[in-house]
Write a structure and sequence with these properties.
Largest interface: A-B, 39 and 57 residues
CATH class of the largest domain in chain A: Alpha Beta
Cofactor (chain B): [4Fe-4S] cluster
CATH architecture of chain B: Orthogonal Bundle
Distance between the termini of chain A: 19 Å
Strand order of the largest sheet of chain A: 3-2-4-5-6-7
Keywords (chain B): 4Fe-4S, Gluconeogenesis, Iron, Iron-sulfur, Lyase, Metal-binding
Structural class of chain A: alpha+beta
Mean pLDDT of chain B: 93
EC number (chain B): 4.3.1.17
Largest sheet of chain A: 6 strands, mixed
CATH topology of the largest domain in chain A: 60s Ribosomal Protein L30, Chain: A
Low-confidence stretches of chain A: none
Helix content of chain A: 25-40%
Oligomer: heterodimer
Number of strands of chain B: 1
CATH superfamily of the largest domain in chain A: D-3-phosphoglycerate dehydrogenase, domain 3
CATH architecture of the largest domain in chain A: 2-Layer Sandwich
Catalytic activity (chain B): L-serine = pyruvate + NH4(+)
CATH class of chain B: Mainly Alpha
Distance between the termini of chain B: 44 Å
Strand content of chain B: under 5%
Pfam families (chain B): SDH_alpha
């Protein structure tokens, strides 16, 4: 803990969980899409669903999807800005079984029809936890540089990925693996210390059995 | 005596400052530079930029037409400022100036404006109001006001380590109470008080707000949060004025903070940011909840308008 944990962050009000956290969920979805979104489908659960109008949770999510950070004064006007830029947004509410009270499912589509969907929760003080990407379980906080590696569940794949990282001197602080079925699609979520250039991600992308790899900078 | 660099007690921080013969702010800046492995100047610059964000809240926050996102609040800071600047205030330009500034920052927060959590968004008006009023009314240089934020932060860290800064854990005493104690400490230092006086100002500020519940109407950071920011800064000046007169708290600051933790633990969860009790549960509170969120609910959206949602 330091003085800026007490006097900070600089943020758009009114609520760190319902506004700042929501913006970060939007922004991490955009980072996963890797290109500007033309369509955003937002589904709100729990307290997000019940109080989003008063807290501006919808505006903050849209702002994040447009790449704004938690202290961007344009968050208030995000829905208008989205309309002006041709970003189509739908917002619906309902229940997601077992989800944290402040949870949103965000699905984005880019101009080429690429789509990404995630389940993100705002867990307090503006901190978030993404628990699902494209239907697969992950664990992403956005606090560290994170690699999301989609791959085939095959022997040696994890070893190959971590070997590339070891060669680059990367220290792993969190590793999670999730697969749909044996031999099927699987996803590694790897949070690492420090910051690394795109060449690390390039080396992982070309490994056998790896479909795609995305490197997220801290959000 | 070893310097208390863990922020585990107010007494430790005060003793270290007295031993070094320096203000608490100086001690904290020095220690933070070591801890964060940055130069004192760069940490000071970061704090100055936060202080300027606070200052930038006042004009938009006291705009006549400002309204919150929910539509429930806005315009109080404008009214208070009119009175403060017309010279007709009951208590004079000093206190009325602090009140309108606290309302301005807090109302700006409710309208999705840019603020500094100090220590939280719900209590973000108290410190800016205290320091900007000292700067304006007492001609204190900006640099001293920025430095006093380090003193305030040290108080916040001690409270975070021994009690809580979250309304959901400790009630409003943890948010507006902590902010008032932080502001009281900063004011005493700015007014030339000793670290010993700072310690008593912290104790008095928290004692006077002990037990305050967190009961936001409709779960929103508006009613009663905005007005509690005004009373929070007034309480900070009360504590500072008493301490500067040499008045001491019979109960030491660290025991008061310990008490705040015990009181928070004993508080019913309905009074800790759940919007299930207190003012949120009044007929008017429930009516305002319905006004903002509507009574008719889609199937599966489960809210009966009871206000029982976490904020």
């Amino acid at each position: 803990m330091n003085v800026f944990d007490i006097l900070g962050p600089v943020m758009i009000g009114p609520s760190s969980s319902h506004t700042a956290g929501a913006a970060r969920i939007g922004r991490i979805t955009l980072a996963l899409l890797g290109a500007p979104a033309v369509k955003a489908d937002i589904f709100l659960h729990g307290s997000f669903a019940k109080t989003y109008k008063g807290h501006g949770t919808d505006k903050a999510l849209i702002a994040g999807i447009m790449g704004m950070s938690t202290d961007d004064s344009r968050i208030r006007r995000a829905p208008e800005l989205a309309r002006e830029q041709g970003l189509e947004v739908t917002i619906t509410t309902g229940d997601i079984d077992g989800a944290h009270p402040n949870t949103a499912r965000v699905a984005l589509t880019d101009a080429n029809g690429n789509r990404v969907s995630l389940l993100g929760s705002s867990i307090g003080g503006g901190n978030i936890l993404v628990t699902e990407v494209n239907g697969m379980e992950v664990s992403i906080t956005g606090q560290h540089t994170t690699l999301i590696v989609l791959h085939r569940d095959a022997p040696g794949t994890i070893a190959a990925v971590t070997e590339v990282m070891a060669d680059a001197g990367v220290n792993i602080c969190n590793f999670r693996l999730s697969r749909q079925q044996k031999g099927g699609d699987a996803v590694m979520t790897i949070e690492i210390d420090g910051s690394f250039g795109p060449e690390l991600n390039q080396k992982i992308k070309v490994l056998p059995n790896v479909f795609s790899s995305t490197m997220l900078q801290p959000i | 005596m070893e310097l208390d660099f863990n922020y585990s007690s107010v007494a430790g921080v005060v003793a270290a400052a007295e031993l070094g013969g320096i203000p608490i702010s100086r001690l904290v800046l020095n220690q933070q530079a070591l801890q964060m492995e940055q130069s004192e100047e760069s940490i000071y610059e970061h704090m100055r930029s936060n202080y300027r964000v606070m200052a930038e809240c006042i004009e938009p926050g006291s705009n006549k037409n400002l309204r919150s996102t929910s539509g429930l609040t806005g315009g109080s800071a404008y009214k208070m400022r009119q009175v403060a600047e017309s010279g007709t205030s009951l208590t004079g330009s000093f206190l009325s100036g602090a009140l309108y500034r606290a309302l301005a920052v807090s109302e700006l927060n409710a309208s999705m404006g840019r603020i500094v959590a100090a220590p939280t968004a719900g209590s973000c008006g108290i410190l800016p109001a205290a320091l900007l009023t000292m700067q304006t009314e007492k001609n204190i240089p900006e640099r001293d006001c920025v430095m006093s934020l380090f003193t305030a932060s040290a108080v916040g860290m001690v409270i975070a380590n021994n009690a809580s800064l979250a309304g959901a854990q400790g009630g409003c005493q943890a948010e507006c109470g902590s902010a008032a104690a932080m502001a009281a400490a900063a004011i005493v230092e700015l007014a030339g008080g000793t670290p010993h006086m700072v310690e008593h100002a912290i104790a008095i500020a928290i004692k006077n707000i002990l037990g305050l519940v967190c009961d936001p109407v409709a779960g929103l950071v508006e009613i009663p949060c905005i007005k509690r920011n005004a009373s929070g800064v007034a309480g900070a000046f009360v504590a500072a004025e008493l301490a500067l007169a040499g008045i001491e708290s019979a109960i030491p600051a660290d025991e008061v903070i310990w008490t705040m933790k015990k009181v928070g633990d004993a508080m019913s969860s309905s009074l800790k940011e759940t919007a299930e009790g207190g003012l949120a549960a009044t007929p008017t509170g429930r009516h305002l909840h319905e006004q903002v969120f509507g009574t008719a609910r889609e199937p599966g959206n489960g809210c009966s308008g009871c206000g029982g949602c976490a904020s």
